[in-house]
Design a protein that fits this description.
globular, eight-stranded mixed beta sheet, 28% strand, binds zinc ion, Rossmann fold, alpha/beta
Length: 275
C-alpha cells in the first residue's frame, strides 16, 4: 500500500490534535473545523502545532539507530513487545517511534493491525514512513494532545520513550494494551561507565507506574542478556540516544578499541490496560 492509501485507512482512528474532531484525508488531513495538516513529500503528516520545546532526534541519530537496530541486538525486545500485543484488529500507535523498528515487527506478527508511528523528529518520521507498508507516520509532540481519537488505539507502544499518562489513557481502547519498555540501571552499563553516557535513574519502574497511574499493570517481564558489539556498533548505540547531545563522536571513536565489547542489555517490558 502507498503512503496515502494506508493513511486513508489509519485516518478513521485519528482526531484533530487542536480541537479533537474527526480528520479526513484531503491534501494531507483536515478536521471538521478546517485545521489542516500537511503531508510531507517523504510520506508523513506533520501534526506539530507551534514550536515544540522537545528536541527530537537528529538525522545522524536516526541513522545510527537504524544501523544498530538492523544488526539485531534488540530483536529479543521486539519479540517480547510483539508477544504482549493481544489486539485482533485496529490501530497500534507507536509513541516516539524513532525508525519504526518495533512497530514494523508488531505489524509483521499481527497482519490484522494497521500502525501509526509518531515522533517529534522529522528525521525519524521520514524514516518511519518507510518502516512498513501498513504503517502511517506523523510528527507529533508526545507531551501535547496526540492526533488519535478517544479510545481508538487497540495497542500502544512506548519503547524507551516519554510517557504522557493522560494521553495514553485517553487514546487507549477499553480492551487495549499499552506496552512500555524501560531501561534498568544495568542497561548498557559497560558503555555508560567507560564513555560517560547518561545514567539511568534507579527507580524507573516506580516512576513509570506513577506516570501511568491512570492505567492498570497487567504484567511485567524482565529481559537481561549480553550482546557483543563491534566498534561501529558501540558508536551507533551511544549516538542513537540522548547522549549524542553531550558527547563528541570523534572523541568517543578514538577511545573505542578494535575489540568487540560485551555489553549488558537490561530492560523491563510492562503491559498496561485501562483500569
Ligand atoms: Zn481541528
Amino acid at each position: 500500500m502507498s503512503a496515502p492509501s494506508i493513511l486513508g485507512e489509519v485516518c478513521s482512528y485519528l482526531a484533530c490534535p487542536i480541537c479533537g474532531t474527526d480528520l479526513i484525508l484531503r491534501d494531507g488531513v483536515v478536521c471538521e473545523n478546517a485545521h489542516a495538516f500537511d503531508m510531507a513529500r517523504q510520506g508523513y503528516v506533520s501534526f506539530l502545532v507551534g514550536r515544540s520545546p522537545h528536541t527530537g532526534d537528529t538525522a545522524a541519530m536516526v541513522e545510527s539507530r537504524g544501523s544498530f537496530l538492523g544488526a539485531g541486538h534488540y530483536d529479543a525486545i521486539a519479540t517480547a513487545v510483539s508477544q504482549a500485543v493481544s489486539a485482533s484488529a485496529g490501530l497500534v500507535v507507536d509513541i516516539a517511534a524513532g525508525t519504526g523498528f518495533y512497530l514494523a515487527r508488531v505489524l509483521d506478527d499481527h497482519p490484522e493491525l494497521v500502525g501509526l508511528a509518531l515522533d517529534v523528529s522529522t528525521a525519524a518520521a521520514k524514516r518511519a514512513a518507510k518502516a512498513h507498508e501498513r504503517a502511517a507516520a506523523a510528527t507529533a509532540d508526545a507531551w501535547k494532545r496526540m492526533p488519535v481519537g478517544d479510545g481508538q488505539a487497540s495497542a500502544i507502544l512506548s519503547i524507551f520513550g516519554p510517557r504522557n499518562g493522560d494521553e495514553v489513557s485517553r487514546i487507549l481502547a477499553p480492551d487495549g494494551v499499552a506496552i512500555v519498555v524501560t531501561p534498568m540501571p544495568d542497561h548498557l552499563r559497560e558503555l555508560r561507565d567507560r564513555f560517560g553516557m547518561l545514567a539511568i535513574q534507579d527507580d524507573k519502574d516506580a516512576r513509570l507506574d506513577t506516570q501511568l497511574a491512570t492505567l492498570r499493570l497487567l504484567g511485567r517481564e524482565r529481559l537481561e542478556y549480553a550482546v557483543s558489539l563491534g566498534p561501529a556498533e558501540v558508536l551507533d548505540e551511544i549516538f542513537m540516544g540522548p547522549s549524542a547531545f553531550h558527547l563528541d563522536r570523534s572523541d568517543v571513536a578514538k577511545r573505542v578499541g578494535p575489540e568487540p565489547l560485551a555489553v549488558t542489555v537490561s530492560v523491563t517490558v510492562s503491559a498496561f490496560a485501562r483500569s
